[in-house]
Amino acid sequence: MKRIATVSLMSDAGCHIALANLEEKLLELAENVEITHCQILRDEKKIPKNIDVALVEGAVRTDHDLEILSKLRDNSKTLVAFGSCACFGGVPSLCNLTNINELITYVYHQTATTSSGPTPSKNLPLLVERVRPIGELVRIDYMIPGCIPEEKEILGVISAALEGVPFELPRENVCEECQKERKGSLSKDIKRNYENLSDLSRCLLELGYLCVGPSTRAGCGARCPSFNIPCDGCRGPIDARWDQGVSMLDSLAAVAKERMRGFSLKTHSAMFHRYSFASSALQRLISNLDTRKEEM
After folding, report:
1. Residue 37 in contact with residue 6, Cβ under 8 Å?
2. Tens of pLDDT along 74-109?
3. CATH number of the domain residue 84 falls in
4. Which one, of 70, 196, 204, 215, lies nearest residue 137 by Cα?
5. Using one digit for the tens of pLDDT, what is the confidence trace for 40-67?
6. Are residues 152 and 213 in the same domain?
7. In angstroms, rounded to a whole number, what is the distance separating the alpha carbons of residues 257 and 12?
8. CA–CA separation, 61 vs 84, rounded Å?
C-alpha cells in the first residue's frame, strides 16, 4: 500500500482544510493508501520514513521549517508543493520587503495591543533571512497552486504522483476562463475593490479595477471575477520563468501609464506580487543588491 504524508510549515493550514473538504473522495483515497502523517487527521509527531508522496503546505520562515522540509525530502520519493505559499512564497513573503529586525520590533513593541516587555526569544525557532518557497530549498516533483487549491487539482496531482505520471497544469490565464465582456477600452479611473460596479457584465480591469487575471494561471474557472471580485493572483504565474507582477505592471503601464505614476515597491508588490513575491524577479534583484552591500 502506498504511503502519503502531509506537513504544514508556516501557513494558516487552509490547504489542509481544502484536503479535508474532499470529504467522501478523501475517504475513498484512504481506502487505497496509508496516510502516515497529517496534522488534521492523525496525532503523529515524527516525520515517517519510506513515504511515497509528501504534500508540503506553507513557505519556509524558520530554521525549524527548513529542518522539517529537509527531512521530508529525504524520506519521500515524491514531494508536492501544496498551495501558493509552498509554490511561490504566498502572502507571508511580502514581509521580505522589510528586514527581520524591523519586523520583530514592530510586532513585539509597536502594535496597539502589545504589552511592554522583552522580545520573546527562549525556546523559539530562529527566523531565516527571508521567506522562501520550498522549491528554492529542495527539489519538488509536482505543484498544486492556489489559495486555496482547487479540488480537481488536489485529486489529480495526488493520483498522478502515486502513479508516477506527469500532471499538466493549465497554461492559459484567468482571463481566458472569464465570461465577462471585453470591449477594448479602459476606465479613466483606478477604482478600489469595494466601489460599486457600474456594469456587471463588463471586464473588471476595463472598468478600472485592479484585476490580476491577465498574469495569473487559469484553472479556477475565473471564480472571483464571476462574483464581481477582481482576481488577486492567488494561482501564481503561468509558468516558473514568467514574473507575474512585472508582467501585470508592464501591461498596465503600456495602456494607462498616466494612471500608474508614483510607483511604490511595497504598494505595487502587494497588488501584483501578492502571492508570488518570494519567487519574483524583484525579490531576486533585492537579494542581489543586499548581497553586494554586504560584500562592500
Report:
1. yes
2. 999 999 999 999 999 999 999 998 888 898 898 888
3. 3.40.50.700
4. 70
5. 888 878 899 999 999 999 999 999 999 9
6. no
7. 37
8. 15
